[in-house]
Amino acid sequence: MSAAPVALLLASGKGSRFDPSGSKNKLCERLANGSTVLATSAANLLAAGLEVVVVAPEDERLRAAVAESRITWCANPDPALGMGHSIAIGVRATRNARAWLVALGDMPFIAPATIGAVLQALEDGTALIAAPEIGGVRGHPVAFSRALYDELLALSGDAGGKALFARHAVTAVRTDDYGILRDIDRPDDLPV
Known about the structure:
The structure is a single chain. By secondary structure, this protein is α/β, with parallel strands linked by helices. It has six helices and eight strands. It has helices at residues 37-47, 60-65, 83-93, 112-124, 149-153, 162-167, and strands at residues 6-10, 51-56, 71-75, 99-104, 129-134, 137-138, 142-145, 170-174. Strands 1, 2, 3, 4, 5, 6, 7 and 8 form an eight-stranded mixed sheet that branches. It is globular, with a radius of gyration of 15 Å. The N and C termini lie far apart (38 Å). The mean pLDDT is 91.
């Protein structure tokens, strides 16, 4: 890994609201563009100029959902430990990164320009955390400074990076991109 910023694309969730039986993985579902949810999320990060590391359990369905050679895979052997654990695994695997942009695999509607603006807000000044905001509501992805390396490694559970929000100011990047709030939780969230 380089000393450039890295996007950690989290893909370890069970997706039980999408399919309680577990037979379908929402990240492998196709969108109107013909691409999978996960591949579209990754493509938006790549279009923003980021190195992309997918943090996911070993799952051939997920690997098949992204036929992109520029993506690095980082195994999460215990996804049940939650989003914070996934972030810590990704940060540890990319320890030389200058910053981390944490994105969710089930959010394929975020514009690359929004992704770039969030990262730019972090790199422009003294901010430790930057996140997009629309109408006063914070969304994804969230960028974390290298200065938070040790705190990111200590994350665990399902709260993700929220523990860091309580300790550090979050620089809001105002946007009109509703993709920052739109995820795929249930089958009817998929556009037809």
